[in-house]
## 1
Amino acid sequence: MSETPNPVTYASAGVDVEAGDRAVELMKDAVKATHGPGVVGGVGGFAGLFDLSVLKDFKKPYLATSTDGVGTKVAIAQALDIHHTIGQDLVGMVVDDIVVTGARPLFMTDYIATGKVVPERVADIVRGVAEGCSLAGTALVGGETAEHPGLLAENEYDVAGAATGIVEADELLGPDRVREGDVLIAMASSGIHSNGYSLVRKVINVAGWGLERQVDELGRTLGEELLEPTRIYTADCLDLMEAFPVNGEDGQTGSGIRGFSHVTGGGLAANLARVLPVGTVGLVDRSTWEIPAIFRLVEELGGVPQADLERTLNLGVGMIAVVDPSVADAAVARLNDRGLSSWILGTVQKDDGSYSSNSDYVQGAKGVDGGAAVLLNQYR
């Protein structure tokens, strides 16, 4: 076999191992800052370790797990070369699916695939993940950065994450706890969050708007608005469950929290329907809130039909709490005192068939044969 005049190395194939090591050095302090007493070991192990003995007081613990990404929002971050916010988006999309079950997220891992490892860029992304984990009270116990030359361009990347949480079996939230007459509480979103960016990007491209464009209605540039991080609701939801317990003194569903719905892909009605029992309908009153300016802008620039907006974007509501009517006002006040704009959104009623002919009626969403939801009236 003849000797190759120009030997092929891993580096010549486009993979820079040393750059990956430098990225770890830049991010490790931010990661360590999320570690509490349950985390075993430090950064750089083959696997993240968590000491479950810190949870020894649980009687019948259930583990909850979730995984997600942030979709095409990464294209906005890449276009603007701003990468320190996308990590918070990732955390929000994962941990707030876990808290919907009543579980407390314990730890998270992340994954970054990129065409070329730029240590500073990777470290910015992971710092954002760490900041998001801190907001959620969740440990970042590990992750992976993969360099994929030839598959992704040098400045392209995608992110994904997974988290695990824990909930006492008799405090698990689900449709079985929801009752007719329960009240729906809206928690405001911070903007578009991380769903629907394929629609949003298409609209701004068709309109010919640049991300650097200053938009008076937004009070900042379009790019700054579109990169606003996803609000993380975990701490607020856990606080509500502590203030208004899921169970009464008899151990049965009490006069407190009945459930939560994280408003992500599919919009408000579809995600609400998933957490309601068969035979009930969530009646959502559009007149209780004003759609934030960014959503109106997308609607007007693209001539997007309202029904399409509602099936794609959160339109200003990022999380919904379902509560016993006796605590509804107190729960709204508590959320607002925490700095989270919240309001009574509607109620849960028996689905007697009178709403099923409404074009805004949704039932059986996301493969769940559960309840239904319908949006009524007009926005402010």
## 2
Amino acid sequence: MQYTRLGNTGLVVSRSAFGCMTFGSGEGALGSVYKVDQSGATELVARALDAGVNFFNTADAYANGQSEMMLGKALGKRRQDVVIATKVGNRMSEALIDQGLSRQHIIASVQASLKRLNTDYIDVYLVHRLDPYTPIEETLETLDTIVKQGMVRYIGFSNWPTWLATKAVGLQRAHNWAQFRAAEMYYSLVGRDLEHEMVPFVQDAGIGVMIWSPLAGGFLSGKYTRENPGGNGGRLTGFDIIPFDRERGYDVVEQLRAIGTRHHASPAQVALAWLLSRPFITSILVGASKIGQLEDNLGATSLSLSADELATLDRLTEPKAIYPNWFNATIYDAPVRDALTNEARNALKRS
């Protein structure tokens, strides 16, 4: 297992984190995702721990709290050995106020999550979505409160746009509030939008990035092809929310198969190994409903792709530049850039 720090903190986490979204049962939009009972959850968590995973990710809204409860039971006495991330913001009942990022809902939700997880503190607490009806200052001040009260160690955001996250960090610094140290965001070989604005921001702000759906809902597992677009009833047949170019995606899967053949690795392992090579990524969230799936995903941490293989995947999936990024890329001063680049190379040689 590989380990790193969570952003600009001293918290050491495994680069493969276990995502517990499959824990529980239910109907609705995520009914096809909730498929693991307590016995299965306990087995999966134990296998993850044996593999060196010390980072577990869940949310209050997953199966209406079942995921948190099942994770807490599965960890048992090992809770002190691991880092738990959970989230707040999505609707938890029909009550009008039982959602969002208001002071009322955040405090009520963190208390409820602590009970479900059977723990005295949450290591990483993430706001799960935007809340356009609550002033951002109210949300940030409340997050600072629950950190100072000891209920939460670190805070972060999930699925926020860069402009809002940037504004939030500015307000946190101005008011001396607890700062965002984690971001849970979607990123994969078929969805590299994060590189446009979010990546430069998190690197500058010292925020660690946790990647959800690193296989694009399972598409990059290799089971979905032009010949078999349904993947024999895979997850995407019931939970298909990630937009991407399917035709280009099939080309990516073919390349993953070719590279995997050379390494005796699965397409999923190659896709995850590419993600682990990205310097701005702290952890990738690997979820599973079966031990075989988990073991295959965890195998990516021991897979080392060559520079040529990484470059091939980079070229094949390179996102189209957006304005003003493409414009700014053309107006750098070449002499200064080259001089500084050469100096950096010389310094590396001297060291």
## 3
Amino acid sequence: MAEDIFATLPRLPEVTIESPAALDALLRNRTEPVVIRGLVDGWPLVKAGRRSGAAAREYIVRHARDLPFTVSVGASHSGGRLFYDDRLGMNFQTLRAKLPEIFAQIAAGEDKPVAPPIYLASIDLAAFFTGLHEANHVDLGGRTALASIWMGTRTRIAAHNDVPHNLACVAVGRRRFTVFPREQFRNLYLGPVDNTPAGRAVSMVDFHAPDFDRHPRFREALSYGAVANLTAGDAIYMPSLWWHHVEGLDPFNVLVNYWWRETPRWLGQPQDALNHAMLAIRDLPDDEKRYWRDMFDYYVFDNDAGVTAHIPEAARSVLAPMTPESAGRIRAFLLRALSR
């Protein structure tokens, strides 16, 4: 069933990039995901991984700081899927260990047909390594990006989205991305918001065995989906909020990604506003919810000149275009209100 789904979906568009200026232009102008073939072919880590998984691990360990790493370890029978169990707990354990110990466990299962999935997710390159990022990085121009490394065995990560823009570079192994536009969230059957495998709500659909009786609208999502099969040296650009299901397909896989926002850092997180709205508005009587929907449209989504035209410009405060100072006032007000 899984191969039928992935085989029938269209492939994402592909480009090649010849210069940092060309990459900058693509990242500024592109509004949909795209595969960038060979973007990081020259990385020493990519070259080590092409020799073997063991060579890649040896190269990575040489740069690792002597710190405990957080690692997720699943069950051998999970097929690499790091997800919920039957009671909506997690079907994996979260442990801490030094990187050589973790890599020794990966090496021990590398040639076995069935082995527990082992996954190090979103490890901050600057905090946990010395020199690794400097030797293996993408020039993102003036963007201030968080650079992270993801390492592990064969894994399946449920469809989710991220608020920042994402440039994900495959350094070792192969990865498959299955992507959907932002507005397809209703057809992906999202799970809990506050109890998630990795901080973001995920699709409850098993892409390797979709239950169309239980999730019939997933067929609609598939009509908008696309697939990208990446090998070492390739990258994919994922604009903010696009949904993506990610699989590591080889016994050892490494991905380096960059997250950044085009909006100022001092702006709040939209997910926090959604969570607060669920707390404050969702369970109100319908007539009151209609009022608050109108208020959100007035102050947030429409936000036209009529909101402030009758208020002297110097007195518009947080109704004026946001600044670091007015953002700080709102944040302080919220902290006081939430602490009562």
## 4
Amino acid sequence: MRKVADCRDFPSETNCTLAISGEEEEVVRAASEHAVSMHGHKSSPELREQIRAALKDEMPQHA
């Protein structure tokens, strides 16, 4: 199942609306790179685990 990381789930000063979806490892990698480059977080295993824990299953767009 595809996973989603959505910046709207986390308060930020920039009111970021980016959502990233894909396979779990792809999303964790892309979301951690985004968190570092756009939100000033430090790259760390802890950051990646926080992102992994916050992932949601992607809802199918068509039935």
